[in-house]
Amino acid sequence: MAASTAQVLSLYRKLMKESSKFPSYNYRTYALRRVQDAFRANRSVEDPKMVEQLLNQGRDNLDMIRRQVAIGKMYPTQKTIVEG
């Protein structure tokens, strides 16, 4: 099944939304930057099999981000000066 542009954009939005939920400033900015960089780097991919593979990898990363956000919320840390 070929991935549509709507699926790619939906995954991008979900990854950005979940990444912005990290309680730690450093993890949050790192995750947001990684998501943006990965999508920019693969912008020109047109092979349907490769796009599907990248989408599956993105979905796996989304699940991982959700788990890490949940774990991060269990153990609150002090806010950095940048956040304050």
TrEMBL record:
Q: Name one Pfam family in it.
A: Complex1_LYR
Where is it found, in Gene Ontology cellular component terms?
L-cysteine desulfurase complex; mitochondrion
Complex 1 LYR protein domain boundaries: 6-64
**GO biological process, any:** iron-sulfur cluster assembly
Q: Which CDD domains match?
A: Complex1_LYR_LYRM4 (cd20264)
What PANTHER family does the entry give?
A: LYR MOTIF-CONTAINING PROTEIN 4 (PTHR13166:SF7), PROTEIN C6ORF149 (PTHR13166)
Instruction: Identify its protein family.
Output: Belongs to the complex I LYR family.
Put simply, this protein is called Complex 1 LYR protein domain-containing protein
What is the gene name?
Answer: LYRM4
